[in-house]
Amino acid sequence: MSRLHVVSGKGGTGKTTVAAALALALADQGRRTLLVEVEGRQGIAQLFGTEALPYEERKIAVGPGGGEVFALAVDAERALLDYLQMFYKLGGAGRALKKLGAIDFATTIAPGLRDVLLTGKVCEAVRRQGRDGRPVYDHVVMDAPPTGRITRFLNVNDEVAGLARVGPVHHQAQAVMRVLKSPETAVHLVTLLEEMPVQETVDGVAELRAASLPVGGIFVNMVRPPLLDEDDVRRAADGERQAVTRAFSRAGLGGARRGGPAERLVGPLLDQAREHVVRVRLEQAQRREIAGLGLPAPELEFLDEGADIAGLYRLAKDIRKQGVPGVAG
Amino acid sequence: MNGGRRRPETPEGAGEAAGGALPVAPAAPAALDGVARLDTDALLDDPATRIVVCCGSGGVGKTTTAAALGVRAAERGRRVVVLTIDPARRLAQSLGIASLDNVPRRVEGITAAAPDGSGDASGTDNGAEESAGSPGTADGRGPGELHAMMLDMKRTFDEIVEAHADPERARAILANPFYQSLSAGFAGTQEYMAMEKLGQLRARDEWDLIIVDTPPSRSALDFLDAPKRLGSFLDGTFIKVLMTPAKVGGRAGMKFLNASMSMMTGTLSKLVGGQLLRDVQTFVAAMDTMFGGFRTRADATYRLLQAPGTAFLVVAAPEQDALREAAYFVERLAAERMPLAGLVLNRVHGSGADRISAERALAAAEELEAGLPDGPDDGPATGGAESAGPSPTSAAASGAAAAEHRSVEHRPVEHSSMDRTADQLAAGLLRLHAERMRTLDRERRTRDRFTALHPEVAVTEVPAFPGDVHDLAGLRAIGEQLADRADQPAAA
């Protein structure tokens, strides 16, 4: 069963929202999940309507049956200092390194190290155990970098292990990689039913698979039910145009006479319906593309009111109903 | 591709391309009341504009905007190069830059907006509005050209090394494992290289307009920070530590410093292993001579971005996250004294029937679905008679004949089922409209929040197209929307 859920997706697909909803969905029946943000955008805080998250794990929501969601915004610099402190007791040396600009170097100029730190911190949370020997978190959900960068981001430890052939960094990188490539991890991609995001998803899945990273599922976000089909539009436009006009009129939208308000409504509404039909057709083509990947692809409804807490709970319910890819039962 | 029709009258022209890029012409978004309009044509036509930088968060259509501006500027007579960072495949194909070779390629199918030679009849009908913006731009210069390229960051990095180090040193750097990882695109390298490429393109002076798409960075202004970061790194002591062999020596005053430095390299070596540290050290040593050059150019590019010939366009979609990022951009650009031209708001929805609110449409739909008693004011009799007549076939003459052929007992059944269907159709149309109006309201609220915060920012809106844009015709259509010449008030 996957315990580390890495959520990626093209920009604008709602990756952070889905990650948050997934963390909520996994936090039921007393389970505890940790939602981690690694890109320093404070998206989680905005979503949950809380103040900016500090670099510490704090509870931000509760799930059904006593579940809990904790959140953490990882800061690369703090993570590096932590890491030095934790593994090498280098508190003082860490400060000295910072003074020398080494921390800047590590977290910006050599950004590969930054990704090592971020993935390292997340894997630490996955492996952390309480006094009772049980994992502190049942699940860890990472709001990860976008699809275009995800494979490299996750694989950075392989690269670093290759660069630093000995020493603690080498071992640390290898340990992280072991977690990321194990069935304990599932990488989920978020997409919309639009061409570019789906194309990027298909490419992303191929890259992840080529790098032997475990792909979990595809979250199809912001799905709206089709309301009218092509046939409907054709009939409303031709054969039954007048009947539709009269229906508008009877529903109180003005007189049905030629040039009356109800009649003038038909044209613009038909235009919208045609756009809708085009969109539905494109969406079906995208669904076929996604189905071709052979992965679970839960669909999440479009949130009319925007992604707020109530919306998150609804999405979490959607996810629970359809099952979390990589988590049986 | 020959662009026979130059300016498709937007709605029909776009609608024609059924099955193509833009099967349906979207309704224009409502007019922007009280907000300064961004005049992209004036910007593109102004010969003083040499660089346009499109920035914004991921997934807002930044690359498409950059490409559309490129097409439009070229067709209006400028010699343009578009630098894209990571275009979607089909968009890249539409520009003919599907192969990533780090060199600008000429885009075929660009048709001069002003005809070659004389600017008479056809020239004026076409150029009437343009000449209002900036007289004479398109005429004097002949047809424009569009070049496009996709950034290959590793290649760009390699080229810098090759250009600035002697062959032997260059070989040493290129073979260094640390360099290979760094240049192959650890996050961050892209930003440096985009800046570097921009500087290169500008230095070549082959184009009179460079349009840059920016990388989808985690913090989208990373590319602005790139030169500074490089600078702070180069100023830092760390680089000296890296280059200090781990032995103490030199003058007495330096002794303590050197000791601490050697302790530092010792620590680093413990952490990452001697091999990597040596790799980094040889890399830094080999790059040392080039760092000065790097920094000079990075600083020059930074100043170039502040120069009057540069214009920043912040691109966003009318969604909370995107506009929040946009506001951040606007503030950052101001703080950096970078010249902001305005905001491009992509994928804005409009409606030809926005006088009917979402609530009203929904209420009407529900009434129809609940099965209205036959019409209250239109009268049941008239309604029935009319629909039995022209409605089923819509051909006037056959209507009556068809009605006569129906058997008496058949007629009411068929009639009522037809009527119900019509009601359902009407209800479906209304539900769709309600959905559209909710989108519209949401977008407007989000946009208004932005404009209230930044009333000084000029805005142009591009309507949402149902499908993706991936050919020149589509880019041209977007370019027209960007120009937004049809300044018709709220009438439509």
Automatic annotation (TrEMBL), chain A:
<dbReference type="InterPro" id="IPR016300">
    <property type="entry name" value="ATPase_ArsA/GET3"/>
</dbReference>
<feature type="domain" description="ArsA/GET3 Anion-transporting ATPase-like">
    <location>
        <begin position="5"/>
        <end position="160"/>
    </location>
</feature>
<dbReference type="InterPro" id="IPR027417">
    <property type="entry name" value="P-loop_NTPase"/>
</dbReference>
<protein>
    <submittedName>
        <fullName>ArsA family ATPase</fullName>
    </submittedName>
</protein>
<dbReference type="Pfam" id="PF02374">
    <property type="entry name" value="ArsA_ATPase"/>
</dbReference>
<dbReference type="InterPro" id="IPR025723">
    <property type="entry name" value="ArsA/GET3_ATPase-like"/>
</dbReference>
From TrEMBL, chain B:
<feature type="domain" description="ArsA/GET3 Anion-transporting ATPase-like">
    <location>
        <begin position="49"/>
        <end position="97"/>
    </location>
</feature>
<dbReference type="InterPro" id="IPR016300">
    <property type="entry name" value="ATPase_ArsA/GET3"/>
</dbReference>
<protein>
    <submittedName>
        <fullName>ArsA family ATPase</fullName>
    </submittedName>
</protein>
<feature type="region of interest" description="Disordered">
    <location>
        <begin position="111"/>
        <end position="145"/>
    </location>
</feature>
<feature type="compositionally biased region" description="Basic and acidic residues">
    <location>
        <begin position="403"/>
        <end position="420"/>
    </location>
</feature>
<dbReference type="InterPro" id="IPR025723">
    <property type="entry name" value="ArsA/GET3_ATPase-like"/>
</dbReference>
<feature type="region of interest" description="Disordered">
    <location>
        <begin position="370"/>
        <end position="420"/>
    </location>
</feature>
<feature type="compositionally biased region" description="Basic and acidic residues">
    <location>
        <begin position="1"/>
        <end position="10"/>
    </location>
</feature>
<feature type="compositionally biased region" description="Low complexity">
    <location>
        <begin position="111"/>
        <end position="125"/>
    </location>
</feature>
<feature type="region of interest" description="Disordered">
    <location>
        <begin position="1"/>
        <end position="21"/>
    </location>
</feature>
<feature type="compositionally biased region" description="Low complexity">
    <location>
        <begin position="370"/>
        <end position="402"/>
    </location>
</feature>
<feature type="compositionally biased region" description="Low complexity">
    <location>
        <begin position="11"/>
        <end position="21"/>
    </location>
</feature>
<dbReference type="Pfam" id="PF02374">
    <property type="entry name" value="ArsA_ATPase"/>
</dbReference>
<dbReference type="InterPro" id="IPR027417">
    <property type="entry name" value="P-loop_NTPase"/>
</dbReference>
<feature type="domain" description="ArsA/GET3 Anion-transporting ATPase-like">
    <location>
        <begin position="146"/>
        <end position="348"/>
    </location>
</feature>
